[in-house]
Amino acid sequence: MAVRLGYIDAVLGGIASTSQEFFRPCLRLLEKEGTVFQVGFFAFDDSETTVFPENVGIFADVAVNSDMTSDKLSDIAVGACQIARDIIPKTIFPKITGAVLSYSTKGSGDGASVDIVREAQQKIPMKLDRIKETNQD
Description:
Layout: H1 19-29, E1 38-43, E2 56-61, H2 70-87, H3 112-136
Antiparallel strand pairs: 1-2
Helix pairs in contact: 2-3
């Protein structure tokens, strides 16, 4: 309710409850403007710094969307990077790098879900450009 009233920007949850238990009331309370998704932050072992130099990974979960489209997927990719930028200072992560994962490696697969990922990948740069333009105003 605090998000809906504008007192806070986000709600963290899921530690002591399942995703379904956490999301169901959130979706009822929050206005459903835009694409809904959840983001998880993971801290990795300090010995691994080649893939995740700061030992942190941020993953967006698209499972709350039963009817995925390329627009929704590109919204989720851009939104997850925006959340990472809002939470993690530039002194820690000078650059936020995102990826959209698919089971199709270098075009080896085909089908509707692969097409959605390919279309989303093409839409992401335009959405990022719009964000940059908005932030300059």
